[in-house]
Amino acid sequence: SDDQTARIWDANNGQELLTFYGQTINVTNAAYSPDGARIATAIGNSQVKVWDAATGQELLTLAGHSGDLTTVAFSFDGTRIVSASRDGTARVWNVSPSGEFQTLVNGPAILSQIGAKLAYSPDGTRLAVAYSDPTAKVWDMTSGKLLFSLDGHRDAVVFIAYNFDGTRIATAARDGTAKVWDAKTGKEVLTLSGHENAVFGVSFSPDGSRIATASVDSTARVWDARTGKELLKLVGHSNWVVGVAFSPDSSRMATSSFDSTAIVWDAVTGKKLFSLTGHIDTVRQVIFSPDGIRLATAGLEGNAKLWDAETGKELLTLSGHTGQVFSVAFSPDGRTVATASGDKTAKVWDALTGKELLTLHAPDGLTSVAFSPDGSQLAVASRDGTNRIYLLKIEDLVALARQRVTRSLTTEECQQFLHVEQCPSTP
After folding, report:
1. Which of 67, 132, 202, 359 has its CA 20 to 30 A from that of 424?
2. Which pLDDT does position 375 carry in this prediction?
3. Whose CA is closest to 136, among 110, 102, 113, 163?
4. Looking at residue 339, what is its pLDDT?
5. Distance in angstroms (rounded) separating the CA atoms of residues 124 and 140
6. CA dist 202 to 84, 97, 222, 230, 308, Å?
């Protein structure tokens, strides 16, 4: 509460049972431990406090955040506490005086709206994140542990991508270069130099032989992935080129630009094949579907579009966001499309009909979206410096809910929250 207290009430008669004093500023969130023996409170002065739920005695103070706290929760087994803060981090703590266990997300608020900023490894075990500083970080998706940082750029890293076998990571930066890194060790392998201004996009060809980059100098370039030698320079856009992607068979490329168009190219000769026209603002990103039959584009006018990859014909417009759309992604099976917007939402759409299937809300504008390799999770990157993982499969949501709820859901609650007519049977 704003009165600097947390309180416990009898759920049957509403009688106040305990008041927790000792906070010197507003209490923003509170959570019980799974066994009901402790309560954790999130305080506006960047601290977490842990209390004895029976006596109200303060047990622990966990300090380490540099911004106001917004959320606190216990792990399922009660041995750890996770806290989220306006400083752009989430932290996991051992529930003992030893303090912080690990930081899950650690980066400045993302000031730039350019760049995808996150990428799953092909096996789904790691998440690479580009922040608005000259570094990128690679995280273990099981433990949340920071594995290593990619340090070497002289200006902000704005895009990041894995190659298709997961052995290399590429980063694009405002220093006018792209770099290639060993995905296992984080060691720098190549620097791609030749652009005359910031590099905003980078992509590996699926066959692993080439790397494409997109730049503010209004060109895209193709490089030998082994030697770093420049192979092609693609000229055709009239403004910044900010996105680039290869087709699944590595035969074609697509680029997106501030000139409100995307262009499809022959990836071997560099010949322009056709343009995608229909957006009325910057085309922030362009991608091929997993089968190579369609293209998707993200437009800053607030729409995403789907196109025929052979003819360039517009197939669908995905309208529903109230802010700029910065990122678009196909699910691994190509049946759904996800979009990330500055309106603080990510949306999932049916890729054949354009029907909106799901809206996911975040506390700040979103800049990037990516499906996990098995399609069961959706990762989003936010301007506040945090990255969130959403479960998409109903069975995963039910399993998670069963670990957290203290009673069975009613039929009405199952219909409202799980969107099923009857509650799933309990094993």
Report:
1. 359
2. 86
3. 110
4. 95
5. 9
6. 31, 45, 10, 14, 23
What counts of helices (H) and strands (E) characterise the chain? 2, 37
Residue 288 gets the label, from left (phi > 0), alpha (psi -120 to 50) or beta, of beta
pLDDT at 361: 84
Q: Which residues touch 112 (CB under 8 Å, ≥6 apart)?
A: 132, 156, 158
pLDDT per position as a tens digit, 324-348: 999 999 999 999 999 999 999 999 9
pLDDT for 11 equals 60
Q: Which of 372, 364, 338 is nearest to 127 (CA)?
A: 372
Output phi, psi for 67, to 5 deg.
Answer: -140, 170
Q: How many residues does the chain have?
A: 427
Handedness of CA 67, 72, 77, 78 (dihedral sign): positive
| Through-space distance between the first and last CA atoms of the chain, rounded to whole angstroms | 39
Amino acid at 334: G
- Bridge partners of residue 285, in order along the sequence: 298
**Residue 212 pLDDT:** 98
How much of the chain, in percent, has pLDDT values that exceed 70? 76
Question: What is the distance between the alpha carbons of residues 150 and 152, in angstroms, rounded to a whole number?
Answer: 7
Q: Which helix (H) or strand (E) holds 403?
A: helix 394-404
**Mean pLDDT along residues 168-178:** 97
Token reading at 7:
């309180």
User: What tokens were used for 221?
Assistant: 């370039």
Rg (CA), the chain: 24
Q: Is 373 exposed, middle or buried (0-12, 13-18, 19+ CB in 10 A)?
A: middle
CB 266 within 8 Å of CB 252: yes
Instruction: Give CA separation, 66 vs 69, 106, 252, 320, in Å.
Output: 9, 11, 47, 36
Taking Cα atoms as reference points, which of 263, 261, 215, 220 lies closest to residue 240?
215
Compute the distance between CA of residue 143 and CA of residue 9 in angstroms, rounded to an integer. 35
If you search the block for the tokens 């409100």, which residue do you land on? 260
What's CA 128's distance to the chain center, in Å? 10
Strand residue runs (E) in 227-333: 230-235, 241-246, 252-257, 261-266, 272-277, 283-288, 294-299, 303-308, 314-319, 325-330
Sheet of strand 168-173: strand arrangement: 157-162, 168-173, 177-182, 188-193
